[in-house]
Amino acid sequence: MPYWLDDLSAYPLVLLSIWLLGSLVLLPQDYQPLTFFRIFAKQLAAKVHPDPNRASSQQLISGSLALALVILPTLGLLAPLYWLSDWPLVLDGLLLYFCLDFVYYRQQSHKVALAVSQQQNSRAKDLLQPLVLRQTQSLSSTGLCKASIEMLWLRTAKQWIGVSFWFLIGGGLAAVAYRLLLLCNQQWNDKHSNFRYFGRPASLLTQWASFPASLITALLLALLTDITAAVRQWRQAAKLNLCLPHLLILGALASALRVNLAGPVIYQQQKNQRQRLGPAPLPQVKDMLGSLKLNRQFQLYSALLVFIFSLLQSLWFIY
């Protein structure tokens, strides 16, 4: 074996292989290991966070310990498998496959678009509700389109680019740790009044850990569509009531689709005032379909970049 192969990181090739496998072979949600962790996180919160009226410091400590209890034992059980395995890259690929459950959400987004196009708003609301934190029952068809578009791209950034980023940084264990962090943040989201303090540690860590992925997603999306318009949106959106990762993604997306995004949302009957972002036209079904098409193009573009990076990396070690 040539000496340069010993130093060549195979992670980009593993990543491309799992991207392809994940797009062709979708694991049913009932058999997805993350489903177990969702149930475990929900039951754990019920045990260690029975009273949301406790002192905020106690809730912050409970939330931190609960987060550690979900992530650290899991990593502790998985790490010895690398010492026992003769094929650690296969184990890395398997863990990455289980963490990349993004295609399911794109399929559901397509089902929501189909339901809205057939004026089946009740069905669209039922399909969308498990995918988002906001309340969907009061949404109009325009609101359903907007919520579905935002959900698709925020999950693209966090659950696809984010998982892939941390996999390239630290392999399967890093991908698992990041994915479990996202899961805990979704289950204990601090936008819900019951988890205002208990979910704060998971929320802060998620914002930090997902920022590189949000930045990469926003930049690639802007380069793929209209970077000048995206930069204009980012400048105009500097004072919006949005966290920076969401602002970057939605700003690039609004300029790409030329529609209005963000705006007020309702969490647990409480209205959260967000200013609108982007051009005047409100999203319609055609914009949802355009968003889905753009999402596939974005993933192909990302795969091409990873392939080029892997090729350049190989040439570097050869010469």
Automatic annotation (TrEMBL):
Family per similarity comment: Belongs to the CobD/CbiB family.
Listed transmembrane segments: 12-28, 64-84, 160-181, 202-224, 244-267, 298-318
Membrane-protein topology: Multi-pass membrane protein
InterPro entries per record: Cobalamin_biosynth_CobD/CbiB (IPR004485)
Pfam families registered for this protein in UniProt: CobD_Cbib
Location in the cell: Cell membrane
Organism encoding this protein: Rheinheimera soli
EC assignment: 6.3.1.10
Lineage, top ranks: Bacteria, Pseudomonadati, Pseudomonadota, Gammaproteobacteria, Chromatiales
Top EC category: ligase
Descriptive protein name: Adenosylcobinamide-phosphate synthase
